[in-house]
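Collaboration report, partner site 2.

Our partner group contributed sequences for two proteins of shared interest, and the home lab folded both. The records are reproduced in the order in which they were received, starting with the first partner submission.
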Amino acid sequence: MRGLYFDIDHTLMSERPMMALFLPQVYEKLAKKLGVSRDKARELFLREIVLRRDSYEWHDWNFFFGLFGLDMRYERLIERYPHRITVFPDVVPALEVLRKRYLLGIITSGPEYQRLKLKVTGLLKYFDVIVTREDAKTVKPDPKIFLMALEMAGLKPNEAVMVGDSLWQDVYGAKNVGMKAVWINRNGERDFHMADFTVRNLHELIKLLGVGT
């Protein structure tokens, strides 16, 4: 095995602190724009997100801002509130160890601002290959996005492992092209035994790979 690919959201970092900041602003702006209550605005916004789950658009906050005509851009939020993007505490120590042994990459269904998130959190320097939905013109679990990431690194599917939190996007998507898949189950969710291996954090991944410090 020569390469390790990672998902970003809920695998390396969390946007929840950022969401807690901007979603109330979204509901307030939308309520005023539509002349409805804040609760109704919240219902309308979240309904659109649920309806588009796992679609190409679902992965982009800017799509939903634009859908409702809101003057907001997620890039501006990232640049203004970088501390609201929280990297899990196991991530940097693990990447420091893993990059000494493996080629490291990112495969994300998110848009171009995923690179900005990696930059402001200090994680960008760890990755040799980054593939976003714009690069592949598709999202996981489409084989195209995985194959593009492998080709960019000069790797065959059996030479790489995908690490991610989504059984559908990350695990199924990777296995479908012949890669091994590690499910990172940070919240102790029910394990459907789809992945080749399951870990709770990246410290466990290091032990699984038998990589020393």
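Second partner submission, folded after the first:
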Amino acid sequence: MSSSGRGQTEPLAALVAVFALGVGLSLYVGALDSTLPSLTIESEMAPVAADRFVDEASSLGVLQPPIEGSADAASPNGYGMNATLRSGSDVWHGGPRRSSTGGCVRRTVRVRTAPGIVRPGTLEVCTWPEV
């Protein structure tokens, strides 16, 4: 039996198949991202939002005020989020006024209050479902 008799795939067909797989995965991930907040229990959303906030607002694990932009970027889809950062007598807020219906989480963090000065602080992140 000659080698031309063996099964081979045309390069164009293989590229089309890879492209179709990529589009399918992209659509699946997009749909999953939009429905994930509705599948998450409200009390579990605050810790997730706090993790996202710390990733957005920190550099090498140290939070850097002001935090308004980071609060907007870390807010989960379908939820409102408020972040309050305290260090000594300094207080920074980000996000809309918090609702009484949401869940909150507090974390001890490091805060850069001035160039070269890092102090301990407290981060409180509250989330609530948007109506």
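Feedback sent to the partner group on the second submission included the following. The longest strand covers residues 117-129. The chain has a mean pLDDT of 84.
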